[in-house]
Amino acid sequence: MKHVIPRDYQPNDEVLARLAQCGVDREFALSLVLEFVIYWQERGDKTHSWSSKFVTHAMHEWRRYEIMLAQGRANIAMHVEWIPNKNVLWAIAEQKIPEAFALSVLPEFRIYWMDQGLVTNAWNSKFIGHVRYRWQTRSVNVPSHVNNKPTRQHSLVGDITDRSWAAEYTGGRKDGNR
């Protein structure tokens, strides 16, 4: 007898075992249940085998996920083993940024994004942007004693006592008195 999907539908162990035989990860399959139930409740369709429909749905979503993963398009969270693909390193080298430099900023990139918890399929693009930024700002972060250049153009006392900026507000007088 056909019936609408129950609100508390859950695939049974037999369904999960069948999906596992096809290579579908158990946690992945279980993550699909809520969306599956909501979709079929809203449609109001009736069937005699929600389990068959769920197997078909889970298989379809799993194949889609595998394709996206193989193409590097899957939305994933950053993890400690993530590495940019070879095209990224090529693009960085084309910008005259040494590969060694790019790889040296990889750990900080991973840590930052692991802390953020973002899930995306654009890690390679984000890494290129990070490397460009770090390359452009690398000399700014070098202490003055390393490159033997002073960090100030004026003396500290001169900067503190400078009132030239106030001339337009004081009628041209530099003393600030009216």
List keywords for this structure.
178 residues; mainly alpha; 2 domains; two-stranded antiparallel sheet; 10 helices; elongated
Q: Could you say which overall geometry the principal axes of the C-alpha atoms support?
A: elongated
Classify the secondary structure makeup into a structural class: mainly alpha
Query: Can you summarize the main beta sheet?
Result: 2 strands, antiparallel
Q: What is the averaged pLDDT score? A: 85
Compute the CA-based radius of gyration.
Answer: 30 Å
Oligomer state equals single chain
**Strand coverage percent:** under 5%
- Segments where pLDDT lies below 50 for 5+ residues? none
Descriptive report:
A two-stranded antiparallel sheet has the order 1-2. It has helices at residues 13-21, 26-31, 33-43, 50-70, 86-94, 99-104, 106-116, 123-137, 144-147, 156-161; strands at 76-77, 119-120. The mean pLDDT is 85. The chain has 178 residues and is an all-alpha fold. It has two domains: 13-70; 76-145, no CATH class. It has ten helices and two strands, in the order ααααβαααβααα. 55% of the residues lie in helices and 2% in strands.
Can you give me a brief rundown of this structure?
With 178 residues, the chain is mainly alpha-helical. The chain has ten helices and two strands; from the N terminus they run H-H-H-H-E-H-H-H-E-H-H-H.
